[in-house]
UniProtKB/TrEMBL annotation:
Domain NlpC/P60: 142-254
Gene3D superfamilies associated with the record: endopeptidase domain like (from Nostoc punctiforme) (3.90.1720.10)
Membrane is among the record's keywords: yes
Region feature Disordered, mapped onto this chain: 1-21
Protein known as: Cell wall-associated NlpC family hydrolase
Keywords noted in UniProt: Hydrolase, Membrane, Protease, Thiol protease, Transmembrane, Transmembrane helix
GO biological process, one term: proteolysis
Annotated family: Belongs to the peptidase C40 family.
Transmembrane annotation, as ranges: 23-47
Lineage, uppermost ranks: Bacteria, Bacillati, Actinomycetota, Actinomycetes, Micrococcales
Amino acid sequence: MADVRSTAPQNSRPKKSRRRGSLGNIVVMTLAGGLVATMALPAYAFAPGSTDTQYGATESTELIKADAQNVKVDAQAATVSVSRDGFTATTKEELAAAAAAVAEAAAAESRRQAAAAAMTSYATSYSGPSVSDYLASPPYPNYDLSSVFSVASQYQGVPYVYGGATPAGFDCSGFVMYVYAQFGIGLPHSSTGQGAAGTRISLADAQPGDLVIMDGHDGFYAGNGNILHAPYEGASVRIQPLWTSDYYIVRLGI
């Protein structure tokens, strides 16, 4: 007869031991897996609130990491000069010059009005023959330089009047024109035109009665370096030494 008591307990013990070993293995594997997962998390996972955007990477930090802030500057930029705008004020000298210009303009207008008044008086104060009258019937049909100078000398003391061409008042070319008209020689009322009407001669050959031509002025050569002319406003026809060497001599009728 077989011994039943000895076999039954031996079969039940090994089964219980296997269950416990399997359960322990599962617990160990679970803990190990959790430990590995925890170690694999990035560092910011342990910081509270690390998921907030204020702790995350910004566009500027990403640009810095990417080295995107490179600026190329042309070498010529170092040589470019920079100037600063400034303000200028009118100086005392400029103000004085402006005031002088205004005063000169006023004086010029005053002279113009005086000349106009003189011309009005001139036009009504002479009733004798005019240039055109003399050209139509010259009192001295025989032309010679000495006679020209003699006639011209008779008008010393006649006042200067701008535009004048009668014994009521002469300007420089009006005086020459009026005298030569008495010899039947017509001339323009212009010093330049009168200079072009004759022939230039040397000063050594000049005689009284020849014309002295300057820039904007003329008269009769009076001999010995002198000129007979109507000089300027406020003066009268007179003989005086030539004050400049910037002139030339012209003779008419040759």
